[in-house]
Design goal:
The chain is mainly β. The chain contains two helices and six strands, in the order H-E-E-H-E-E-E-E. The protein is globular and about 45 Å long.
Amino acid sequence: MTILTTEEKKTAPIPPVETAPVEDPIPTTIEVEEIRQLLPHRYPFALVDRIIEYIPGKQAIGIKNVSINEPHFQGHFPDRPIMPGVLIVEAMAQVGGVVLTQLPSHPGGLFVFAGMDKVRFRRPVVPGDQLVMTVELLRVRGGRFGKMYGRAEVEGQLCAEAEMMFSLID
């Protein structure tokens, strides 16, 4: 019986596997100009400044830079400006709208609110804050109805969360 030493054991090198470069057809970030093409909202109701992470058909993370110059702060509240909760939910819905309008099955048309459940506000949002909104698609029915879960945070602290339902109108 012969015992092979390490030097005697020679094997042919394994050739590298050639793979084609994978191109992601959808960007992982979406700038404000592109958001304007996807959503019909305009000043003063365009509430998403940028999508910083986008996973097609699943979720998006958007930001809104909150400024004292926004018109709702004139009356909500003059001596203690707080972003209205309904606008925080609207901002989350707009992030969700980016996900819905990019679904391959989207036939065109406008998604609008059909309902909101489990809405909770945890902390005020004030001028100078950067609102980070994570919105996840839970389900789509018949291509005309969608349900999403959204969270809004400032500096890692939860400000608001909601389940949002959408309906497609022609």
